Amino acid sequence: MVTDSAVIDLAHELWSYLRLDWPLEKTDCIVGLGSYDLRVAERCADLYKQNWGPLIVFSGHLGNWTKGIWDRSEAEIFAEHAIARGIPADKIKLEAKSTNIGENLGFTRKLLLDQGIYPKSVTIVSKPATERRIFATCGRIWPEMKICITSPRITFDDQLQDGIQEYFVHEMVGDIQRIKIYPDLGFQIPQDIPDRVWSAFEKLVVMGYDKHLIGQAVSP
Asked: Which residues pair with 122 in a beta bridge?
């Protein structure tokens, strides 16, 4: 459990940068990106019920975290969770092959096109601290699409109280690194990283929050 106040302050700096907190807009499709956080599926279900979009696509195979806890794809687990919350099964489509954000977006785009669905706008739902990476990746993978990005209505403190606090901090540190290096690799469009955010990143790495960092072999 994260209890060190210095770590919490540094992690909050990353959270504040990574979460965009855009206003909602009605779009042609809701896309839920798979992860370990079922609240993303709940957010997608709530948006559908509130008429923010007429269709849901859940995207995701298994990632570094979920392959140790689930025996089916994130997309399948999320769909079951949404159906249990009252979403009609015929309003949900599954993309169950992707293992990273670039594939989430690229494979979802292809799925929709292959099925003759041509949205002009999509709402992408993720964990709060993944929002900026989605924006940067969309600019490279799906640049023609008008997007709205949102996440479960939880706070930084809510996230710290979950059972995955340590992983959560490691994950944010890794995402800052990806935002820094991925534009040069062609995976994302560039994002300005304020000095205070990069300083927080460097301090957390020195403190041992490096389990989500990447070396030479990288993927989006």
From this structure: 147
Rounded mean pLDDT of 164-190? 92
Which domains does the chain carry? 5-17+156-206 (no CATH), 21-150 (3.40.50.620)
Do 78 and 115 contact (CB within 8 A), yes or no? no
Which residues face 123 on adjacent strands?
A: 30, 148
Q: In what order do the strands lie in the sheet with 56-59?
A: 92-95, 56-59, 30-33, 121-125, 146-150
User: Between 4 and 32, where is the model more confident?
Assistant: 32
Across residues 49-71, what is the average pLDDT?
Answer: 84
Q: How far apart are the first and last CA of the chain?
A: 29
In three-state form (DSSP H/G/I as H, E/B as E, the rest C), the secondary structure along the chain is CCCCHHHHHHHHHHHHHHCCCCCCCCCCCEEEECCCCCHHHHHHHHHHHCCCCCCEEEECCCCCCHHHCCCCCHHHHHHHHHHHCCCCHHHEEEECCCCCHHHHHHHHHHHHHHCCCCCCEEEEECCHHHHHHHHHHHHHHCCCCEEEEECCCCCHHHHHCCCCHHHHHHHHHHHHHHHHHHHHHCCCCCCCCCHHHHHHHHHHHHCCCCCCCCCCCCCC
